[in-house]
Amino acid sequence: MQMHSDETVPAVDDMLCFALYAASRAVTSAYRPLLQELGLTYPQFLVMQVLWRHGAISVKELGDHLQLDYGTLTPLLKRLEAAGLVTRRRRADDERSVEVGLTEEGRALRGSTTDIPVAIGEAMGLTEDEVDRLRLSLRQLTDNVVAHGTTP
């Protein structure tokens, strides 16, 4: 069987989308062992980060912070609730809205995560300025792609 190479097709390593994908997988993998000790997945950790910062908020607000839809967020919240870390309840002033809050155990877990940013920073091997520039570039990229997707 003869190998065929089409030079008009870019190498996967040269594609920006692949670089983003590979970087995302690498960073998420760096979190995995640190979070496993706490019984959290990376998406669950992100939920907890938002709750630690903002306190009790609606599922809609939580989804907005994490750029996740209700269907994706609900199973995460169910697992966190089953683990005793969060509570979910309908708001008294608006029965359609579900509020998510932290339990005592959920609040206490925060103390166990303080070393995670340092460990991830070391794994990334970037200076603080490089991290800031990369974060700004990625936010701009996200905003641009989202805006482009909403135009006819």
TrEMBL record:
Signal peptide: none annotated. Residues 13-143 form the HTH marR-type domain. Keywords: Cytoplasm, DNA-binding, Transcription, Transcription regulation. It holds the Pfam family MarR. Its main location: cytoplasm. GO terms for cellular component: cytoplasm. This is MarR family transcriptional regulator. It comes from Saccharothrix syringae (Nocardiopsis syringae).
